[in-house]
Amino acid sequence: MATTVDRDTAKTSLTFADRYERVRQLSSTLCETLEPEDCCIQSMADVSPTRWHLAHTTWFFETFVLSKVDGFRTLKDNFSYLFNSYYNAVGAQFPRARRGLLSRPTVGEVRAYRDAVDERMRRLLTGDRFFADEDLQTIVELGLNHEQQHQELMLTDIKHVFSCNPLWPVYRQGSTAGSGVSSIGNGEGWRRFDEGIYWIGHSGNNFAYDNESPRHRVFLDAFQLAERLVTCGEYLEFMADGGYRRPELWLSEGWSNVCEHHWQAPLYWHLVDEEWREFTLAGLVRLDQQRPLCHVNYFEADAYARWRGARIPTEAEWEVASAQVPVSGNFVDLLLEQKRVLHPSVAPAARPQLAQMFGDVWEWTTSSYAPYSGYQPAEGALGEYNGKFMCNQYVLRGGSCATPSDHIRRTYRNFFPASARWQFSGIRLAR
Amino acid sequence: MATTVDRDTAKTSLTFADRYERVRQLSSTLCETLEPEDCCIQSMADVSPTRWHLAHTTWFFETFVLSKVDGFRTLKDNFSYLFNSYYNAVGAQFPRARRGLLSRPTVGEVRAYRDAVDERMRRLLTGDRFFADEDLQTIVELGLNHEQQHQELMLTDIKHVFSCNPLWPVYRQGSTAGSGVSSIGNGEGWRRFDEGIYWIGHSGNNFAYDNESPRHRVFLDAFQLAERLVTCGEYLEFMADGGYRRPELWLSEGWSNVCEHHWQAPLYWHLVDEEWREFTLAGLVRLDQQRPLCHVNYFEADAYARWRGARIPTEAEWEVASAQVPVSGNFVDLLLEQKRVLHPSVAPAARPQLAQMFGDVWEWTTSSYAPYSGYQPAEGALGEYNGKFMCNQYVLRGGSCATPSDHIRRTYRNFFPASARWQFSGIRLAR
Amino acid sequence: MATTVDRDTAKTSLTFADRYERVRQLSSTLCETLEPEDCCIQSMADVSPTRWHLAHTTWFFETFVLSKVDGFRTLKDNFSYLFNSYYNAVGAQFPRARRGLLSRPTVGEVRAYRDAVDERMRRLLTGDRFFADEDLQTIVELGLNHEQQHQELMLTDIKHVFSCNPLWPVYRQGSTAGSGVSSIGNGEGWRRFDEGIYWIGHSGNNFAYDNESPRHRVFLDAFQLAERLVTCGEYLEFMADGGYRRPELWLSEGWSNVCEHHWQAPLYWHLVDEEWREFTLAGLVRLDQQRPLCHVNYFEADAYARWRGARIPTEAEWEVASAQVPVSGNFVDLLLEQKRVLHPSVAPAARPQLAQMFGDVWEWTTSSYAPYSGYQPAEGALGEYNGKFMCNQYVLRGGSCATPSDHIRRTYRNFFPASARWQFSGIRLAR
Amino acid sequence: MATTVDRDTAKTSLTFADRYERVRQLSSTLCETLEPEDCCIQSMADVSPTRWHLAHTTWFFETFVLSKVDGFRTLKDNFSYLFNSYYNAVGAQFPRARRGLLSRPTVGEVRAYRDAVDERMRRLLTGDRFFADEDLQTIVELGLNHEQQHQELMLTDIKHVFSCNPLWPVYRQGSTAGSGVSSIGNGEGWRRFDEGIYWIGHSGNNFAYDNESPRHRVFLDAFQLAERLVTCGEYLEFMADGGYRRPELWLSEGWSNVCEHHWQAPLYWHLVDEEWREFTLAGLVRLDQQRPLCHVNYFEADAYARWRGARIPTEAEWEVASAQVPVSGNFVDLLLEQKRVLHPSVAPAARPQLAQMFGDVWEWTTSSYAPYSGYQPAEGALGEYNGKFMCNQYVLRGGSCATPSDHIRRTYRNFFPASARWQFSGIRLAR
């Protein structure tokens, strides 16, 4: 894979101090178009207010790094209660579903909190003690990755917040440049992989979450993977063929959801004057049929695949296939640099290899989120980071247009409940 | 009643234009201590964000006054959808329970909306056409009273919002000056009223809501009314005597609520280090046992009265008794002027007449909110103002420390569901 | 009122022992068409299984009579827990909403329980001790009235249970004889009553519930009362005129209910092949437009009256008007004797006086269920019988086709929440 | 595996007609201790009334066999609506959660329905046409297995129904004979299995559900399996060590459930006078610490395993290990024959091989219920039998004391949501 940029190498060639600045700066950049009012809203229990993300990621460095070093607590005691997400080992948490009831601390006060922690962190990261303390480096690395995860959530959450407002607020304009797409219907649309024992999972010294380990063997039957993502136009065909009205296409729980919630289209699609529009981070726009479908949940992905006579891949299949392509694509930092819209992009017309494996949309897999054979959670409070969520969630792979480019890996396992629609989640077919 | 200030006379001695300025200004004053973040939060379905109150009261003038005059619409079309509260005749409404999901228009944009409407209203109110149009005057009068109602709600709503925040934000500091109180236990604590036919309800040309009319006769048996409000200290005795643990003291629905919600004290009371504290608009303070009890609901008022071997009055009894006292007391505008805390005040030690009938706290009555004999709702959309709520609500009388002083009348009928606790609502006993 | 049968006199001419037999026998008669399976079902929280009614009415005699006499407990201890409805003073209660989860004791066991209590009661009622003990007589009288109330509930509850079954079970066939009806539209349809002070409420030695006392004065403005009940045909006109689609006709809470529950017709009406049918105790039958409307709630009654330009009466108006008519009509025992269908009957064509005031359907009044001036609940546990429900309920008057004929009085106050539809409740207009 | 009884061979040595009689008879036997009232109750949405099970299993033969043969419909049309469980392809279904609202058809009518279908089925199964029609044989085979599944549910459902009744009804007495148990703590308690590629899943001509196919390869790392089930006594140690109070032992969703539902012990355990009792099909009995734990859900199984420093096995591990033991154990038909209590039995003291792999309790695995590689659902309506439930459920293996002995297989995949506790589900550890 000579063409693959080794992002881990790129990452480690930067000092921790540099990377800290870059990551923290991106969080600020993502907020620069927001008003204080925007930063308070929790539009559903899954969503957190922007201000909470800004404070929580800061609380993480304060709690797991600064306070470990010298007992330092930057600010008020009850911040720990307010901004602890789910770490029972650290203490009680303000109820998640009530985060939207808090107007204080204000955005300004949270910024001050960030500044205070940043100042201490800068001193720490450039000091001798830090260079000598590998455990501390591991936690800072985790803290940076943690903040990057929340950067994606800041975007998906503010998109959901804005989507509840009939004024259709625009988060950020962007250019919509993109290339054409050929049909997926012909034989060339699939890549084949042989049966065999494969190794999957993370190994080596570069950073990965504990849920990606240990590297272990799986047996795979031969399979095929679609060379690009499902498009909005293709999904419209499914809808036109009664996709949301035919129970035989759906998992039982999915069909119950369709009936109960009256789903008739992906989240954020609106039929206006008999024309489909899509609410995006650039406001309500005409649906682009060439672009990858996004904001579908596991049930919709599964039903679409069944309708197409295909299926969605397992996470092992996806990871094995991903070895053939570089870890590059449309990620949030690149899109911002290029002033492009924060939305999945049209696939390239020429596809010498699997396209769109990284960036654009998270790809649902049929794999329930479970511990790998031999999995051991991290010690202490940070062991709560991943393992305790391994139930009733499904794995998604590859990152999205809201993921920072140096955050993703081939072995990266994202996970959401089967009914979740507010992430940039889409479909790649397998068979 | 020589000492009674005739507030209606005072009111009408001002021009409409002057009164418009004063009322609108008070809304601004009430927001001056708030951050933009504070103005977005909806802490329960009954609460509206401050920003919504500011916009809705403005929408009222735009919709029922300006647009009637010349079809004028100040701002965006969908403001009408967003800021219509419940007037079906005017059009669809953004769902009440979702008002807290809106971050736009921002506080600044709402202020601009207010300014634009104010400018048009000023021109109108000083023009010849307005002086000649009595219907228009009636609607402006209603609009001013409507905004005053929302001023009270702005205070009770922001108090509820802040009460959800473990940081206990302070809305506004104030002095806590007040006089002592004598015991209610002795015979002098009650005033007697004879049986007979009495007239109640509004008549005359001064403004009143349609629900206060027509003036009509009721027959009352002889009754007694307590000369002052129930205090926090007295309520503590009820609590100490098992008040919240004895079903025989409660209405059946009240007891269900006690069990389901685990009520053990009035809303906003907190036991901190074995000492009772009360969350107020001035933050969390030590409970003052001399002050009138507030933030109890109908069930608590009824249970307390039963425990005391008394009852709460009917609205007719209250109105008949109120004829003996001037319409004066601790109201929000006076408290602000005097830089006093926005909270009910201790009763005067000397009480030549019924004390605390007006201001301090709304007094629960045992009267279900129902149409008076001969009631006719107003014509058109404004007929939805009152009549359609005449079911499963109870009448409260006398205004509170959050009511503007020129808003209240002896015939004024406020109403809330029996379970509502977030208003400044308290108890006066009858027997 | 020479034609008025004095039912109280008739009642007291029977011995207690005779009346006990008759009342208990009617409960058995009402169950004779039911299978054991029918007697277990609780189709909503408001409904109790037939078996529970049979056991609870027996528990009442055991608890408040037999156990008071000599500590006698007929059967198992936990029956008291299972069959106590809401008397906190007597002990804890099996949760009301879970009554449908019990299959034991079986119907047969409950019958044996009834027999055992009956045997003891017979001995008591014919003994000297009972004749000498007026307090005991009062409680037995209450127990008999209590069982009669449950006889009505047995019918309304089993009707609701059967209505959930698409097989439309028939509870009991009956003849549908009835006379024609003339139009209510002309002036003769109303009776006039003068303004004045009236006495309402119960006095004297005959039995009445505590909520009917004391007799007291009310002032009434002049009013008119419709001479008969609203018919199904008239209500169809309301529906045809958009009754369920026009918010301006509804109380706000009623309109919310219409929208949330998609009400489009009274409970038990079904549109089958474009023809309205009504589920009755005799199964699903074609809607008879001449018969009185029933199974509407307070909101529907209020909306219909508003649409007709009228209103529903207050309970005082109803009681004052009822003095002019005998306490007679279509009651359950008479209908059973005559083998007629257990359903409201068509009004007589000739109406020399107010028709249908008693029997047929309970008539909604606009009066919130509240204590009368001077009301005192009974002492002890039986004080829980009525008073604690005086909140958020509305009074209905006159009895229905499911009420035993010697149970009703002019002063009788029935009460249900405004949203309740499963009782035989209908509309008489006032203005 | 010379000692393994080949149950499939035993099964096929019987004629279809014989097996039909035996299976249908067992359903009747399971009801012989029930009263009609018992057969109506639905104590939660997951539970179906006994009567419904009896009718639904009959509806299955009528719908998928008899009506296919000659359009024959035994009984009323709406039975299909009432007793269709979830086959959308067959038509609409009466809502599952409302099955407890039906009192008709009565138990007697359902028995008559069964008799009528049985008579037709007998004729069919002994006729030439049936012997010639392999498709029909396949469906009858499925129908028999289907009824056996419902036999288990009849038991677990009636147990739940009875558990809601404070009278603690006894379903069926039985002897409690059982042997002692040695400690699991020593090294001999585990069996080791080597890493490698294994085949799992069903192949061959004998009956299996579609979800057990196709037979396919998996790679397993080396693992160990506990030689017997976790006992009640061992679980008491977990509880004594704060098992239900320590969030670090639980999956996040499990901990939320513990907090919300206040779980403190397995379902059906009750602390009475400081002694643990267990509600069983033989009533409320003293907890036997030697017996296998049952009625725990996935979260409890997972938490217990974590506390023990172990884990629960994957379904592939379980299936591979099961190849070493015969398919025999404590099943419902054997327990009935031996007049033993319908409850899991104590493990034998001497364990030359893995004990209790079949019967006693279903064993939770960590495997999410998902399609096997290459899975194809059956054609037509019967394709809805399994595949559409492959989401958010976990696989259990081995059958229980409520499973018929000729129903289970090594490849058999049962599945329930992670929160389900009302099945006979227990724990075998792995590591």
Question: How would you explain this protein's 3D organization?
Answer:
Four copies of one chain form a homotetramer. The two termini of chain A are 25 Å apart. In chain A, the strands form five sheets. The first copy, chain A, has a four-stranded mixed beta sheet with strand order 12-11-10-13. Chain A has a three-stranded antiparallel beta sheet with strand order 5-6-7, with no helix packed on it. Chain A has twelve helices and 13 strands. With 431 residues, chain A is an alpha+beta fold. The first copy, chain A, is 34% helix and 12% strand. Chain A has helices at 7-12, 16-31, 50-70, 78-83, 107-125, 128-132, 134-163, 232-240, 252-261, 298-307, 315-322, 332-337; strands at 190-193, 196-200, 216-220, 223-226, 269-272, 275-280, 283-286, 329-330, 358-359, 362-368, 394-397, 414-416, 425-426. In chain A, helix 2 runs parallel beside helix 7 (134-163), helix 3 runs parallel beside helix 5 and helix 3 packs antiparallel against helix 7 (134-163). The radius of gyration of chain A is 22 Å and the shape is globular. At the B-C interface, strand 3, helix 9, helix 10 and strand 10 of B face strand 3, helix 9, helix 10 and strand 10 of C.
